[in-house]
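> tool_call: predict_assembly(chains=two)
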Amino acid sequence: MIGVRQALDGIRARLRDVVLPRLEDEHARATVIAMLGILGDLVPRVREDEDRWRPAVEALAAALRGRANRRPADAAGAFRAAVEAALAEPSFATARLQLLEMAEHEVRSAWAGRDGRDLTELRRALAVDLDVQLALAVSHE
Amino acid sequence: MPAATAESDDVPRRLEPWLAERLGTGVRVLDVRPATQGMSDETFFVQLAEGGGHPRELVIRRYRAGGVLREITDPERHFHVLAALGNKGIPVPRVLWFEPDTAVLGGAFFVMERVAGTVPVPWSTEGRAFLGAAGRGPVGEQFIDVLAVIHHVDWRGPEFAFLAPPAPGRGFALAEVEKLAELVARYRSEPEPIFEDAIGWLREHAPEPPAITLVHGDYRTGNLIYDGDRIAAVLDWEFACLGDPMLDVAWVCAGSNRMESDLVCYLLPMQRFLDGYRQRTGWDPSPERLRFWETFHQLRNALVWLSAGNAFSRGRTDDLRFARMALRLPVMRRLVAELLEYR
């Protein structure tokens, strides 16, 4: 996934290298130059809102804890510990990635027949995560 | 018409000696216009004057290195498919030459004769209006006819020897799923549990084909040229292979080819299309087969976006369309999740 800064930098580069050299109208050129400046000023102000991932982290953690209960006691303990370790991360974004990694592993295991085929709870949690992603992806449509 | 790119500005100079060698006469390139700029290839309309001033219009399809999903497409195979289809009763552009040397135009390319007509963007307002009207006329039935003819091509002739028949039974579907699994592994930049779920589901539900046929691989209304009330050409054969004809049928019916429309490919009511196809071929596009192949297509489509995002984030392209696709990838994940009945 590309970050906001990378996207803004990419837009600036294309405006500078592709759009600007082809503009002959002075007002259009001045406008694009101003856009380049504004985008450059905005880049250092970009801060990712990590709290937005909180509902996804909570849903994924709950679903994964539920799957831990299906395991033998020793394996369940290690699995729960991994979930709690992710939750202890100070960043929701980092916690989410760790939990998604675990969810992906669970999905693979389920389809490989190693851990039952019931993915209902996990899919529900992944749908919550997807809602957060979609809120970002379609909010400016 | 999009503005010519710096690269297209250079095409005439590079093209003239190359064409002259093939035509055996002096050639003057009068005009080169970009027709489309795809994610892995570009199409140029070329106007030229041959030795005696005789005017001619050609089309060049040039492939970029590192274009999206190049792992499962091949420009040379695309060229050979079009060449093999030249006399099979399927309207296709006549291909002339293939050039693998990327030094000539900056990417492998092939040259075709130009087919007159229009190619509407199916999901645009104008495209929907055009296709809705066309579907009520002769084009609607032709759309089914052409697909049935593709699926009845005798592919056992020597002209199709470059296409390998798939393994029997579920072999074709399973092999296609493994290609997608490899692409997920190659292009992911974060965990992709929904795509992995889809891979698992597809492996579990891979169907046997009703027959092994030539498959177009991307048959839809946006890949056809229309001239009046007829389909003048079927384009974009880069995914063509021998396999399950239901792959094409399901793609025609797929949700992403009828967004907010009651018409498959914005052209025909689904039942009319399926009944017409069944009558022409005798094969049953059952709901199970359609669901499998639609899920396959939706995942493959999502992987185009994943691949595009990977290319931009790793600096292999500065094309902002790729960045846009990366940012919109969650929409593609949602379409896959919906087919897996996440809610």
